[in-house]
Amino acid sequence: MTLYQFWHRAFFARRSSVNLSLFRLALAWTIAAHMLPSFFQMADNYLSTAFKTQNPYCFPAPLLQLVAASPDAVVWAFVGLFSLSLAAFTLGWRSQLSCLLLTLSCYYFYALNNYHIGTLSFDILLVTLVLMCCTQDHGDFFSLDSLRAGKDRSYRRLRPYWIQRLLQLQLAVTFWGTALSKMTAGGNWLTGNPYYALMHYPSIGVVRDFPGRAWLAQHPMACYYLGIALIVFELVIPFLWFGRRTRTIGITLGIAFQVMLWATLHVPTIFLFLFPSLMLLFAAPELLVRWIDRQREAQGERGRAFLLYDGQCGFCLESVKRLRVMDLLSWLDPLDFHRQPDLPRLHALLTPERCRSEMVLIEPNGQLAGGFDAFARLTQRLPMLMPLFPFAHLPGARALGARVYRWIAAHRNLLHRDVVCASNQCGLPHTLPPSQN
After folding, report:
1. pLDDT per residue over 317-361, tens digit each?
2. SS3 for 155?
3. Domains of the chain: residue spans and CATH
């Protein structure tokens, strides 16, 4: 293999971006867990009444002066920008633009008060965000962007792999840098025993009260060799991630290591949320794609649910198109009821009038649901709708949801931009079945 071939294969080979899209969700959760709690104490953290420090190593002096002069109204405006861009980035709506705005707002709060969030772990988080700003591929799957595109099987879409590779290298360099700092910085772990000193810190300090801490505090040599083992682990583990045959064990050990850090030390949320998800980026996306394909085939063998819809309604056609995108494991088999000459053969309670007025779901076990009840059932089966499952089953949600569904069904022509809807079935008044009145 030539150097060019190696370079192309490592960075520019086209592979599925499904794991990058899932990483977007983990990154959004990490940012939310790190930043949102700080907004509950605005007067102490960011407003003009807060004690603040600045970071001249990360920001130029003119920028620090400009940010420090921000009136409280501007600070609150950035809180709003952060909240909106975080929500959009999580949902995958204009994912690249929302990532840019989210990164801008994070850097603003970092420049505003280095004392509260100026840590090495936050620096790592910001570098990750900057890399994610360089692409829109993280909106390919499990996002509102994928719904807008309306392309089924978006998990199979191929993209250049370079962003995932840079994120992998970022994590590897972080581990290697941490190991080297333990061997060269003050409090050298080779010549000293910092881990033994940690065991004698107050319980409200860096170290948690975990099982075995008291024993370690009485055995300095055990602490020393544990520290040496930690350095070796941090130097070796990235090589396991990059090896095809050792990748699985490396990811497993790496995640277990992060859980161990969280269980024994008071570490930032990044260690528990960001680093394990970064490790999962080493998993070959082809494995996940093949797993999804196998699940879709198995679902076909078990039997799919029938979704009856009005094929002469533009709004209904667009809705079914979006449902196909959300139906990751191919549980649904949408059917235009106009093309079904014998509806009672599918279910005894089916009539053209009912199918025209609401979508009807027939599950593989023969259970029938229509309208909002059908939507509530879909929240249990379609992964992208699962976050709505708790809300669809709240007390009173069925009554309210049925009213909203009836309104949408009666005004479909107002909710679809295609002018053809004004002249087809959407524009015709339909009577709902007695069960929905």
Report:
1. 888 888 898 998 899 988 888 888 888 888 888 888 888 888 889
2. helix
3. 15-154 (no CATH), 161-302 (no CATH), 304-436 (3.40.30)
